[in-house]
Write a structure and sequence with these properties.
Chitinase A, domain 3, four-stranded antiparallel beta sheet, 451 residues
């Protein structure tokens, strides 16, 4: 996301010379009027430059598409203002803070941002706040239009299924209901070994070795190790709180004590600090486990699996008694999405190691022990598992009996899109719209823009 936004920044600064050449010396002008709102040539070129920076081909028809998107957005914005819709101030402020942090990280601090844009920070905040405020109003009106559709009844869904050819109905992917028993390796011993290694590396830096050299040799952070552990100028909010607190407490050049985060263990060297921004190097090392840890866990899981298979204990009871995976143990090992609560998983939602084992299983099977990762931190911690495949819902064309929610969402989405299309068509007729001759011959997807 940081890099994408950088493209926007560069585009905004690069458009003027490009425009002057492409439009016969015209630097900027109004190219469309929608009600009392305008679209500038610079708006279109900024978007075109961003697309090109992302590797997309941009030609005249692309610019026409960009203009049409602006025109549609303006129709919603005009109506949102007429309806006196209110914005979600907290969301706008959060989006503004995110944008500011991204720019500060991209350019390297407030001073460089101000030099780059030729404007003070308070002015940039004002301009971006206005833009994000408009975006919020547009989205609010679009939601209002999309939701203003008739409520569906079960009969509506049933009639939709009957009237729709099977090939046009949504496909429902295979889903799995799974239980697990997970055991962790000896984490304390592994953590102690990592801490001792980092303490030794810290002493080497204090005694004169280069932090950057040691980071290239020992760090396990693929994103920074080749840069000598350097992270680049970033807001403290980007990192785990323990990491940011440790880095911000250092003096330039100073090396921290060992810091633990969900990613592992670090030592940090401060390079630069600017307000709530800082640049630092770090060495990340994660606890490593031996074949002995794996063999010990596998032996115990084999024993648990044997108890289950000879019917001495159900898988659910065994999970409650033996599993160390805290999210599922109390529910008999049932794997459920922590955000939706769903206990059915499509293959793309599963850990690769889990699906590799699961794909050859049948309902009622208990897997052999295998190594996987949990959901902690960014990349997960090592865990050893056995799985119980409780239920398979095969891939199939959505039907009324099994997939009411899927079909309901399908119909609601279609109705919402139609409501959006109808809104735009209606507002095209009743809103004062003028398009500059420069774009009158665009192959717009909708008719009705040029009158």
């Amino acid at each position: 996301m940081k890099h994408i936004f950088a493209f926007v920044v560069l585009a905004a600064l690069a458009v003027i010379p490009a425009r002057a050449q492409r439009y016969n010396g015209v630097v900027d002008k109004t190219v469309a009027l929608v009600g009392n709102d305008i679209v500038m040539l610079s708006d279109i070129e900024s978007e075109a430059q961003m697309m090109r920076a992302r590797g997309l081909t941009v030609d005249w028809s692309t610019r026409c598409e960009i203009l049409e998107n602006f025109l549609e957005a303006k129709l919603f914005l005009v109506q949102a203002k007429l309806d006196s819709l209110s914005i979600n101030e907290a969301q706008v402020q959060a989006a503004l803070d995110q944008r500011m942090n991204e720019i500060l990280m991209t350019l390297g601090g407030e001073q460089k941002v101000e030099e780059y844009f030729g404007k003070p920070m308070y002015k940039l905040r004002q301009e971006w706040y206005t833009s994000l405020n408009d975006q919020s109003l547009i989205q609010e009106k679009q939601r209002d239009v999309a939701q203003n559709t008739p409520k569906l009844t079960p009969r509506d869904i049933e009639e939709y299924v009957k009237a729709t050819p099977a090939e046009d109905l949504p496909m429902v992917s295979a889903k799995y209901r799974i239980r697990q028993i997970g055991l962790y390796p000896d984490q304390e011993a592994a953590k102690l070994a990592v801490k001792e290694q980092l303490i030794s590396l810290r002493e080497r830096v204090v005694n004169g070795e280069k932090f950057s050299t040691l980071a290239r040799l020992y760090s396990q952070d693929p994103g920074s190790m080749n840069r000598g552990g350097e992270l680049g100028m970033a807001s403290r909010s980007v990192f785990w709180p323990a990491f940011s607190d440790a880095a911000m407490s250092l003096k330039v050049g100073q090396v921290s004590q060992v810091v633990e985060t969900p990613d592992g263990f670090h030592i940090i060297q401060l390079i630069e600090r600017d307000g709530d921004m800082f640049n630092a190097r770090h060495i990340l090392i994660k606890p490593q486990y031996t074949s002995a840890d794996r063999d010990k866990a596998f032996k115990r899981l084999d024993s648990i699996r044997h108890i289950i298979q000879v019917d001495s204990m159900s898988f659910m009871d065994a999970a409650r008694s033996f599993s160390e995976e805290r999210h599922s143990a109390t529910s008999g090992g049932l794997m459920a999405d922590e955000y939706t609560g769903s206990s059915y998983w499509e293959k793309d939602q599963l850990k690769p190691a889990d699906y590799t084992v699961l794909r050859d299983m049948k309902e009622g099977d208990v897997s052999e022990p295998f190594e996987s990762v949990d959901n902690e931190g960014r990349n997960g911690n090592t865990i050893y598992k056995i799985l119980y495949l409780e239920k398979i819902l095969p891939a199939h064309v959505a039907n009324y009996q099994q997939d009411f929610d899927v079909l309901s969402n399908e119909v609601n989405n279609k109705n919402a899109l139609k409501a959006i299309d109808d809104f735009v068509a209606e507002k095209q007729k009743s809103t004062y719209i003028v398009i500059d001759p420069l774009f009158e011959n665009c192959p717009f997807k909708r008719t009705g823009w040029v009158k």
